Amino acid sequence: MDILSMIGLIASLVLLVYLTMKGINIIIAALLSSVVVAVTGGMNLGTALMDDYMTGFTDYFASWFLVFLLGAIFGKIMQETKSAESIAQWIKRTLGTKRAVFAVVAAAAIMTYGGVSLFVVGFAVYPIALSLFRAANLPHRFIPAALVFGSISFTMTAPGSPEIQNIIPTEFFGTTPTAGGFIGVLSAFLIMVAGGLWLGRMVRKASERGETFSLPNSSKAEDESASSLAVEEESQQSETVKNLPNVILAFLPLIIVIGLLNILSMFINPTASLLIALTTGIFLACILMNKFLKEFWEALATGAQNSLVALANTCAVVGFGSVAAQVSAFDSVVNAVLNIPGPPLLGLAIGVTVVCAITGSASGGLGIALPILAPIYMGQGLDTGDMHRVSALASGGIDSLPHNGYVVTTVRAICGETHKRAYAPIFMVSVIVPSVVLLLAVFLYAIF
Fold it and tell me: What b/e sequence results for 310-320 when a residue is b if at least 16 CB atoms lie within 10 Å of its CB, and e otherwise?
């Protein structure tokens, strides 16, 4: 193996993480990192960028454009019709401030598992989380952890989920979204319970230490003023609810998306099933909540624009991975993964986990890792359902490092927090817990 190639591969990964953490656009960061890995790997720079990078970029774009498009539009319609807010408000009323943490996690999880775009979920649930945490005087810095945990840690990797992280493996293993059987369901349940209890304990311990609801860079007087708004907000809640769609109607599009996806996947391609399910969900939401939808065409346009940004960011990371896959050091890494002692599924789990961690993207990591690893492990005769679920679970663990796009957006843009204050609990419940459960799932699949 060329030592310079390995140094370049590591340096390019460090550069990608560093630039993303500094807030540099991921497309620019991925291109610069591709240049580093190509030059140090002895590749022709023109070929690396115009051929390898663009092939990875455009292939992923062509494969998943419609999924991203309809997913983003569905999320935007759920937001514009106030359906997302109706669901969040209902959970708030049902669980109340005494269960503020669980209420926020539940609101994010229900909408994500129903097919609503992650970023829409974050922006829709945050105001509810803010109100609940302020009323209960819980530390504001834990809101990002509750949103991230509820949105990605178990919902996007669970059997039956319409999220793309559960759909991508179907294309490589010929499976359905429910693949993985009882162990898959158990894994999602364990992540949900263990992470939820741990998050609740962290919030309780912080409160016992004297932490209160406090915003970054705010004075004590400002925090006291913010806390006093809780009573006023509660008094206005009944009026707010009157201006929202009935919660049963708001839930119906989510139920239809999940149901259609999993029923149709038994007969046709899962990706096609998802497209049909999302289209039906969009149509149903528009019909049922029509009086709340003021700007239909504008909502479609905004959803389309959001999908292009999200997809382009993911494609950029996949393009970088396509360049990295051409250097000799990458082959050495793959061989090391394949030769890891233990059950064969352990190598697949670690391979997907590492790539997702490097890219800071679950879907991007799957898009890079599975074209390489899936044929190898399928050739070993492993159960396709087991491989599907292990791949999905592996994508939802160490991908949630500080440079993960959704983590950055949630911490900074949605919650106005800082990584220094808010990231530690995110790491606990969205990195450690899913990673431990992933290893347990590998062990269980190896036995049963």
Answer: bbebbbbbbbb
